[in-house]
């Protein structure tokens, strides 16, 4: 059973606010790099508030669990990043390893200014010193689904963010 944690109206309101915060800190034009698959719905809602952006996707996979640094890229963005301002968008900041990896990869491509935005920040111990520049909501240490986030590819379509309750 999925229990509602953040309702659709709350998400809608916060996404608009976030877009304002981002546009104040990051002048247009900039490149949005969305991390697949979890950030696809958040990105779709967020980018519709921006005036002038290029959009591309990236996929980073990490072996969940104990070992550090086991992160790899499985889809590279193709839009040139050199000298550009970039906003990396992810669904949830858990240990932080995927976003840290994406951030370093984008920097290494010669991006001028790299900012990071996550819909959710989970209250757990991090494995990086990176702090996302923009955070939608802080959530407790639950396994959350919906609004793009899945459990075995299910629940991504839910219009709210929920957590699984047995
Ligand atoms: P990190 O590298 O920060 O540990 O993990 C980030 C990725 O793990 C997220 O982009 C997401 O794909 C997945 N993840 C972490 N916590 C959750 C969660 O509570 N629910 C879901 N559906 N995915 C999560
Ligand atoms: Mg995922």
TrEMBL record:
It comes from the Bacteria. Keywords: Cytoplasm, Glycosyltransferase, Magnesium, Metal-binding, Nucleotide-binding, Purine salvage, Transferase. It catalyses: GMP + diphosphate = guanine + 5-phospho-alpha-D-ribose 1-diphosphate; IMP + diphosphate = hypoxanthine + 5-phospho-alpha-D-ribose 1-diphosphate. One of its GO terms (biological process) is guanine salvage. Its EC number is 2.4.2.8. GO terms for cellular component: cytosol. Its main location: cytoplasm. Belongs to the purine/pyrimidine phosphoribosyltransferase family. This is Hypoxanthine phosphoribosyltransferase. The lineage of its organism: Bacteria, Pseudomonadati, Aquificota, Aquificia, Desulfurobacteriales.
């Amino acid at each position: 059973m999925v229990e509602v944690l953040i309702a659709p109206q709350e998400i809608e309101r916060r996404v608009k606010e976030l877009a304002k915060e981002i546009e104040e800190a990051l002048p247009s034009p900039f490149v949005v790099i969305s991390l697949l698959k979890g950030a696809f719905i958040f990105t779709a809602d967020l980018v519709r508030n921006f005036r002038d952006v290029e959009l591309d996707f990236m996929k980073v996979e990490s072996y969940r669990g104990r070992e550090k640094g086991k992160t790899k890229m499985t889809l590279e963005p193709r839009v040139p990043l050199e000298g550009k301002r970039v906003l990396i968008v992810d669904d949830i900041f858990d240990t932080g390893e995927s976003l840290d990896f994406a951030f370093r990869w984008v920097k290494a491509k010669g991006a001028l200014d790299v900012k990071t935005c996550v819909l959710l920040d989970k209250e757990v111990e991090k494995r990086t010193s990176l702090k996302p520049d923009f955070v939608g909501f802080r959530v407790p240490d639950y396994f959350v689904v919906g609004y793009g986030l899945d459990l075995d590819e299910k629940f991504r379509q839910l219009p709210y963010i929920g957590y699984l309750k047995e």
